[in-house]
Design goal:
With about 850 residues, the protein is of the alpha+beta class. The longest helix is centred in the C-terminal third of the chain and has 66 residues. The protein has 26 helices and 21 strands. Helix 10 runs antiparallel to helix 12 and helix 22 crosses helix 23. The strands form six sheets. Strands 11-10-9-14-13-12 form a six-stranded antiparallel β-sheet. It has a five-stranded mixed β-sheet with strand order 16-18-19-21-20. Strands 5-4-6-7 form a four-stranded antiparallel β-sheet. It has five domains: about 240 residues, Rhopdopsin 7-helix transmembrane proteins; about 70 residues, no CATH class; about 160 residues, GAF domain (Beta-Lactamase), CATH 3.30.450.40; about 90 residues; about 120 residues, Histidine kinase-like ATPase, C-terminal domain (Heat Shock Protein 90), CATH 3.30.565.
Length: about 850
């Protein structure tokens, strides 16, 4: 089965399991809230295993029935079958015939009328029902949340199935005879508990090797559970004796729990020297503490046929799924044994201090009594001074206890402070790595540690420095940047151990990551991250004391990694700056040349763009007269032939000569039009006039308008409002470029129709030119950036964003200025101020 199909199967079964548990909770909650008052048997019997009487109705108290009797039949029907249809055989006022079995195997037959369900609903029953329903909700919520967070983890899937099965059992533990369809669902759920328990404890915290080799073996418990549940359900539907099947289901569930716990105990012994020990300890002891008391109670009810308050024994089982779920989500439970050990020692020390203090007070009281001091004030003063003298001793002892159990944490704080201060001035990678290793071996007491740094040239992690005993293979380690371990370190951004890859869905990636830990023989790998970059990894082995790294150790490692990342980045930046300084002048000159070439290319590109737009219109203007002349030449050829024929025939040639003269005159008009267009284009570009000249700006504007005439297409009106301008010394070709850019932008803004107004006026400093349009205008933000290079409001590929920037530069080189006045929806006006003499070079 491929990973996609496996995940699809898990989602489907998890959804079914959730629905199974949710229905059980809702039906149980309905019974608790509504508390129906219906006819019920006159006693309460245990629902699992044999139907042992555990409570009698007050109406039959003191009769022949005793607590502990086993109910066999009612009205000739097996009691288990009858429970599923109590509404059919229970009627108010009509007795039913019950068959009971006493402890001495003697059977008795008694006719008893039904009781009312409210007779058994006591405050204690309601409280127990509410608490167990709360525990059931905790189970279902824990399984669902863990599955939601870690859907790819097989342990999360197994926990979801286990929690759903336990949810049903807990929700139906009280008042089961009032919950609809409780009995048939119990027949299916009881053996299922054994199967899901085996699935969970052989998946998390440790998956045995024989399970890894034969994963399909997990199907066996499920197959047996389905078979037992199916046979029991069929026996109930067919009204067959199913007591033995029920007993087999209970025995199977209990037996599978014991077998699973035994497998976990074996794996726990095998993991004695592994980082998995804490995790196996937590699950193993959690299972014993949570379920063994309840199983013992169940065993007593089932085997000894003795009613025991099994409902109360189930109240603390909620601790188990919470602990397992936390371990799956967090991937590890750190320092379980060390925390328990330190807590016990701290409690013992505190108890000793309190005992000494109590002994001193008792001694003071005894001393006062032996001295026969009758004055109460003397006793109070004596006790006051005794307490006053003892208080410094108590404080010192308390401080000593705190210092003993906090010495590692205090040493870590000192180490972090010293490393932070030292790394500020370190600019050598080797020095930084040696400082990290010194802190790990001296402060944390690890037997071996290694720092691996990413080599940019190789794109791989390579060892830079190490301490402890390492073989040649470990020191030659090379981990490529595309290795699954590097990806996990970069994506998870936290320290990782070998067990963190147990939930890796890809077996190849899982084994590849595990191989790195095995080859290096390290317990933890801590990533050195700077922003989004992985700079290196710190590999740490076990402590010399043999203890595994706890949460405080990992906190120190993460702090070291964070501090070293800043130092490593600073060292790299320092090296890069030193290299840049060596070639700074050459790089600046090279960049300057590149920028100059880029600027020339951009200016040329903009000019070519403008030229292309002009050519499109000029080609149309030249096409008309040239086509006209070409047609006249064809007619002229025909008339010349007619003229020759007329002369040879001696006929009148006057009419032909007149038509030839008209054709020549009209053709001459066409050629004059072509000549004028070429002259305007030549004058516009000033190909032959690159020097500064004294020109009439009105003529230059009109010449540009003539070339732009095809763009207007009779849909854009141009209004000329010319003042009396003096002649201006300028570079006409450059100013024509500015005029054309402004006119083209106005046409682009207005689209198919609109009005362009050109206004000229003399000023004290020179002349003022205004180019206005009635287009959509600009917002203040756009107007503020309109002259920035590469800024454009046109679509990608339509405008370069250089036209107005180049125009701004041309006007400034003439010693003038250009600005824009515009509001959204009110058009735009470009205002050019020029001096009468452009003194700067163009």
């Amino acid at each position: 089965m491929n990973p996609t199909s496996t995940q699809r199967l898990r989602r489907a079964t998890a959804a079914l399991a959730f629905a199974w548990g949710l229905v059980a909770i809702l039906l149980s909650l309905r019974t608790l809230v509504l508390s129906p008052d219906v006819p019920v048997p006159p006693f309460r019997a245990v629902r699992l295993g044999s139907a042992v009487v555990e409570r009698l109705s007050p109406s039959i108290g003191g009769g022949d029935i005793e607590v502990g009797d086993v109910v066999l039949e009612v009205d000739g029907i097996p009691y288990r079958h009858a429970l599923a249809a109590v509404n059919e055989w229970l009627r108010d006022g009509r007795p039913n015939t019950y068959v009971f079995e006493r402890g001495d195997d003697r059977q008795i037959e008694i006719a008893l009328p039904p009781s009312r369900s409210l007779e058994f609903v006591t405050p204690m029953v309601v409280l127990t029902h509410s608490l167990l329903l709360l525990v059931a909700c905790i189970y279902l919520a824990t399984g669902s949340v863990v599955w939601w967070i870690k859907p790819e983890h097989e342990g999360a899937w197994a926990l979801m199935l286990f929690c759903s099965a336990m949810t049903y059992q807990l929700a139906n533990a009280v008042q089961a005879d009032l919950i609809p369809w409780s009995y048939p669902r119990m027949l299916l759920n009881t053996p299922l508990i054994g199967a899901v328990t085996f699935h969970l404890l052989t998946t998390y915290p440790v998956e045995p090797d024989w399970i890894v080799r034969h994963r399909r073996i997990r199907l066996v418990p499920y197959s047996i559970a389905v078979a037992l549940g199916g046979m029991a359900l069929c026996g109930w539907l067919l009204d067959l004796p199913i007591q033995r099947l029920e007993d087999a289901s209970v025995a199977y569930a209990v037996g599978m729990f014991g077998l699973s716990l035994g497998i976990l105990a074996v794996e726990r012994r095998r993991q004695r020297e592994s980082v998995m020990r804490d995790r196996t300890d937590a699950v193993f002891y959690g299972a014993i503490v949570s379920f063994v008391p309840a199983l013992l109670v169940l065993f007593a009810e089932w085997i000894l046929r003795t009613p025991v308050p099994d409902d109360l024994a189930l109240l603390w089982v909620f601790l188990f799924p919470v602990a397992v779920g936390y371990g799956i989500v967090r991937r590890q439970i750190l320092g379980v044994r060390s925390v328990a050990k330190s807590s016990a020692a701290y409690g013992a020390a505190t108890l000793a201090i309190t005992g000494v203090f109590a002994f001193l007070i008792t001694f003071a009281d005894t001393l006062v009594w032996r001295l026969d001091v009758s004055f109460r004030w003397f006793q109070v003063v004596f006790l006051f001074f005794a307490i006053l003298l003892f208080n410094p001793l108590r404080n010192r002892m308390q401080a000593l206890v705190d210092r003993i159990f906090d010495r590692d944490r205090a040493a870590y704080r000192v180490a972090v402070r010293e490393i932070s201060e030292a790394m500020v001035s370190m600019l050598s990678l080797n020095e930084i790595a040696d400082r990290i290793l010194l802190a790990l071996t001296d402060t944390m007491g690890v037997e071996r540690a290694m720092v691996l740094i990413v080599h940019d040239a190789e794109k791989a992690l390579r060892p830079m420095a190490w301490r402890g005993e390492w073989d040649d293979e470990a020191m030659d380690t090379r981990i490529p940047s595309d290795h699954p371990l590097c990806k996990h370190l970069w994506m998870r951004r936290e320290d990782l151990s070998r067990v963190d890859f147990d939930d890796e869905p890809d077996p190849e990636n899982r084994e590849a990551c595990r191989d790195v830990f095995d080859n290096l023989e390290v317990e933890i790998l801590v990533p050195i991250l700077y922003g989004v970059d992985l700079l290196g990894v710190i590999g740490v082995g076990r402590k010399i004391s043999g203890e595994h790294l706890a949460s405080d150790d990992r906190l120190l490692l993460r702090t070291l990694a964070n501090q070293s990342s800043i130092a490593i980045e600073n060292a790299k930046a320092f090296d890069e700056i030193a290299k840049l300084n060596e070639t700074l002048e050459a790089r600046v000159e090279e960049r300057t040349r590149e920028l100059r070439d880029t600027q020339v290319q951009l200016v040329h590109s903009e000019k070519m763009k403008s030229l292309g737009q002009l050519v499109a219109g000029i080609a149309h203007e030249l096409n008309n007269p040239i086509g006209f002349v070409h047609a006249n030449l064809q007619l002229l050829d025909e008339y010349v032939e007619k003229l020759i024929e007329a002369q040879q025939a001696g006929t009148d040639t006057q009419l032909v000569k007149e038509r030839i003269a008209k054709l020549l005159a009209r053709s001459r008009e066409g050629t004059e039009r072509v000549k004028q267009i070429v002259q305007d284009l030549r004058t516009f570009s000033r190909v032959d006039q690159a020097e500064i000249q004294e020109v009439d700006l009105h003529e230059e504007i009109d010449r540009t308008l003539a070339l732009m005439e095809p763009r207007f297409k009779d849909s854009i009106e141009v209004v000329r409002d010319y003042g009396d301008l003096p002649r201006v010394r300028c570079y006409p070709g450059q100013l024509n470029q500015v005029f054309m850019n402004l006119l083209m932008n106005a046409c682009d803004a207005m689209g198919d129709e609109g009005t362009i107004r050109i206004q000229t006026r003399p000023t004290e400093m020179g002349v003022e030119l205004r180019f206005s349009d009635d287009g959509p205008g600009m917002s203040p933000e756009v107007a503020g950036r309109i002259f920035d290079p590469f800024f454009t409001t046109k679509a990608v590929g339509v405008g370069t964003g250089l036209g107005l920037s180049l125009s701004h530069g041309i006007i400034e080189r003439h010693g003038g200025s250009i600005r824009v006045e515009s509001q959204a929806g009110r058009g735009a006006t470009f205002i050019i101020d020029l001096p009468l003499d452009a003194t700067s070079e163009g």
